[in-house]
Amino acid sequence: MGNAADQPTVSHRLSDYNLSNFSRRPGTEQVAILRPSRRSSKAIEAGCRMNREELIFVTGATGFLGVQLVRDLLERRPDARLALLIRNRPGQTGEQRAAAFVPAEARSRVEVYSGDVAQPRCGLDAAAYERLSATATRLIHSAATVRFDHTLEEARRINVEGTRNMLDLAAAMRNLQSFAYVGTAYVAGARSGLVREDELKVGQGYRNTYEQTKSEAEALVRSRLGSLPGVILRPSIIVGDSRTGVTSSFKMMYWPLKIYARRLWRTVPGFPDAVLDIVPVDYVARAVQHLLFDESAYGSTVHLCAGPQGSATIEQIARRASEYFHAPTPRYVDPQLFFAAVRPLLYMVLWGKKRRVLRDGRAYRDYFTMRLQFDTSNAERLLMPAGIAPPPVMDYLDRLFHYCVASDWGRKPVSVP
User: Fold this and answer.
1) Residue 57: φ, ψ to 5°
2) Domain 4-243+278-309+372-397 carries which CATH code?
3) What is the pLDDT of residues 79-98, one digit of tens each?
């Protein structure tokens, strides 16, 4: 996660920076580099003390969901201010990272804190920690490592201890109105059948350290919900915008889709009737910000999933992909046979791109075999009255495909109306 705790904590509103020295990376939009203005930090803090509006503290703001969530909060909560916890990177501060996605007209409503959820006190110095404890009114914790190949120790450091640090901060917030924890539906692990929202640990195993540590983190949140007004949110696989197809993350479903569309591989080590529950990022972001303010949701666990009515099988998605990309129909192979006998043989005789496909595909193999569905009773009860519902997967699949092709799988920018 980085070592932001070793650096002095800095917090500023983005409007307290002057734009200068634009930088451009090939294939990306222009990003402004921000410089501190002459306005003092004491003046900023005095303004915060006088301001009685909502201050929403957000972790994971630079992630795929986080960027959409920040924009959604700024648009739908015009009276609220945001405080973002962002790690510094070598040669790039948290303010500079935030400037890449916070709309210019909203910068006066955004503060950026340099920190790291996995560090003690989130990597914040005493003054910043106290300031947030005194002024923040709501907290959204969505920062996590989503890598499947982390060691259990490293995944726990980020996902479990990071969540513990955020819960401690939430408990210290004297004006806290609500806490939203963004977990994952795949805390279900290696289960089958219907997974209910009130279930967590029922003796299941886990496919990777990501699932296991997110389950442990959710258990920790559940243990604190008696003393904190909070809600647990479990999205399934998050994909691009349902209206435009836009995505900045080409992982999970996108990786096997890309190698299939490019005709590098057509053999699927999985079951045609395996269920792929995906949800668009615009739905998840809108649901998170709505439930953060819905008192009737506090104490609940909510599946932000397509659910039994809206999800699709691997075969349905593959058939649509075959039509869209004009590619041969996939072949399905029993996964146990493939990984026990076929893959080792192929790994010895294949080279180049196809061998890399065999190597990289191991992380996704279990997700082609899942025969489980996510119950969405709480989501329907809480979100449908507000007109918030996930579109069925098959209704927007072509828009996802179109953006993949138009952007060359994220290699070039695309103008979206």
Assistant:
1) -90, 130
2) 3.40.50.720
3) 999 999 999 999 899 999 99
